[in-house]
Amino acid sequence: MEYLRQTVDSSALRGIFNLPSSLRDKRVEVIILPAENIAETKTKPKLRLGFVKGSPLPESFFDPLPEEELQAWGL
User: 20 to 30 A Cα–Cα from 25, which one of 2, 6, 8, 67?
Assistant: First the structure.
């Protein structure tokens, strides 16, 4: 894994990070590691709800669940 490790004056980080006062006006070590591959996240398809566009939910959708169903879910 590729990473960057560098010692810099904390003033160079002003505007990028909100440093705690104990780290201000000091030399600090910065280590940058990749968190995710942005190129991969851009190609992922957006998730869509499974409802057909324009089909309304039946009124029974909002009815309370039967007691047996609630117990099955541990509620």
Answer: 2
Render pLDDT for 32-70 as a digit per residue (tens, 0 to 9).
998 877 776 666 667 766 666 677 778 888 999 999 999
Identify the CA nearest to 10 among candidates 33, 22, 27, 29: 27
Phi/psi at 21 (nearest 5 deg)?
A: -60, -30
Answer whether 0.85 is exceeded by the pTM. Answer: no
Residue 25 clears pLDDT 90, i.e. is over it:
yes
Residues 6 or more apart whose Cβ sits within 8 Å of residue 34: 1, 2, 3
Interior CA angle at 50 toward 47 and 53, to 5°? 100
| Residue with the two structure tokens 């705690």 | 20
Q: Which residues pair with 4 in a beta bridge?
A: 32
Give the three-state DSSP class for 68.
Answer: helix
